[in-house]
Amino acid sequence: MKIKLCCALLILVSAAAFCQPGSLNLGYVIDTPAANLPDRGEIQSSLSMYTNGGLLGSILIGLSPRFALGVSYGGENIIGTGDVNLNPQPAVEIRYLLFTEQNLFPAIQIGFNSQGQGPYSDDLKRYAVKSPGIYAVASKNTSFLGGLGIHGGINLSMENSDGDKDPNIFFGCHKHLNKDLVLLAEYNTAVNDNDDNAVGSGKGYLNCGVRWVFAQQLFIEFDIKNILENGNNIAGISREVKLYYTTHF
Length: 249
Prior knowledge:
The chain is mainly β. It is 6% helix and 49% strand. It is built from 1 helix and 15 strands; from the N terminus they run αβββββββββββββββ.
């Protein structure tokens, strides 16, 4: 327990340890990855607030123009009453940018992320929404309609204790309304979570959100998740808040 608490404190303290302004070049739509890396020497930190008093802190560090490493940790009931239920171990993230975006060709990135979404079940040995695991994603940005980005990829989660080892597909897009507001939408098909012992019920996860650039290095995101109410015996639609902060070392 002390090790888990130390990991959680390390992530949260590190997220606020640097105070130089950074960019907002983030690598996620909402939960699904985008083919986008931090700049070299850039630290992207986030703090997500989700159901049941849950908090999830994460850090992603750009080590080169093509390579980044990250770690995340959190749990339920960190805010509110009841016993704190921390995740079993910190999650790791590895990203490598194979191809940068060029004219008509999208950026292509491969990676690994062991962080799922929502509460972790010790009995099922998985998160409510499975972690991406190994993935590949392509992203294309355009100035069409004032700024539009389209993202899509495939992943193979390591959380397969339910016996469902199918590859999964995900899609996402973002639309700039102005320099301060970005609309977000993504769809995780969750075809790797629809067998007999699955948590999902075959509808997939549709999430939408809005990202507000509060300052050059800080922004706030408001998300509505699981709009299709996919799942068996789990919470339906959820409203969540995420804070991002970027800096350099």
